[in-house]
Amino acid sequence: MRQEQAPLGLRAALTALITCVVRTAGLLRHRRVHLPPEQVGRWFRFADGTSARVYRDTTVDRGAVREPCVLVVEFQLRLVRGWGHALFRRESLLNTPLFAGFPGFVSKLWLTCDECGRYRSVYEWDGPRQARDYARALWRVLALVSVPGSIRYQVLPGLRRDDLPLALADPASWWCPVKVTSGSPGLRPDGNRTGPVRALTPLCARRARRDPLIARAPPGGTATDRATAHLGTAARAGAAGAPGRDDLAGTRPGRGPARPGRNELCPAHRGARRAPCPRGKQRPAARGTRVLRRPR
């Protein structure tokens, strides 16, 4: 399904956009523009193998739809990487006056960028011709911030948003949703997370990986009712149930490595004495302590 695509004339596009902004102001004044949360978090998988998540849904109050159609618009932002995508998703709400007031507008699903960095929007429109006129006028705005050649759209007459997905497996049909699933905002349909794993890792797990000193029972000894710090590795307990390094009974968790007292060093370090300081040199003081010098 190939459609001849070209942007609207500059003068006609500018007139249509200004009229849309004025109409949107009236809709907002009468509270006819809504952001329902029911569709947020759903995943759209398209025929070309890419997928994207719905992060916003915009609808307007209007009468019955006589000529329903679905409009899919795709573009790729220029010079937007990393955290810039999150910033774009937040500020994109300010673009509502550029589409909500167009004749025939019913609803819009805002989708995140897919694996190739391309954004899609799924609209429901009343009238294929009006949907096409809007896409051609929008082209002029998207051309200012998009990669040249990345803007395209597809009008599907006779369909509503609730009729998606479609049973079409042509990889060239970038516009065709073949699967719609509901999932967690932080997960893809295959279960992989959308962001870095470190941001979703519990704080206690990160602290355990960072600190090599773990409050456990001393090697070869019984667990006491206090945290004991020891270094290095120790042999695990045998099958007879002898207490070893993994015997955690009676230990008390703490924040970070425990500080041993006078008689709470592990056996490998008991009796170890500090080397004498050479004559003429002063032993460096521990962090956080104040050195007092004798007056000469």
Care to describe what's here?
The protein has four helices and eight strands; from the N terminus they run αββββαββαββα. It is of the alpha+beta class and 296 residues long. It has two domains: 187 residues, 2-Layer Sandwich (Alpha-Beta Plaits), CATH 3.30.70.100; 58 residues, no CATH class. Strands 1, 2, 3, 4, 5, 6, 7 and 8 form an eight-stranded antiparallel β-sheet that branches. The chain is globular. About 23% of the residues have low confidence.
- Which class of secondary structure composition applies to the elements? alpha+beta
> Major sheet: size, sense and barrel closure?
8 strands, antiparallel
Overall form: globular
* Approximate helicity band: 10-25%
CATH C-level of the largest domain? Alpha Beta
**Runs with pLDDT <50, length 5+?**
189-218, 223-254, 260-266
Q: How many structurally independent domains? A: 2
* Distance between the first and last residues' Cα: 96 Å
Tell me the CATH architecture of the largest domain. Answer: 2-Layer Sandwich
Mean pLDDT: 75
Number of strands: 8
Q: Report the C-alpha radius of gyration, rounded.
A: 32 Å
* Run of helices and strands: HEEEEHEEHEEH
Write down the CATH topology of the largest domain.
Alpha-Beta Plaits
Strand content: 15-25%
How large is the count of helical segments? 4
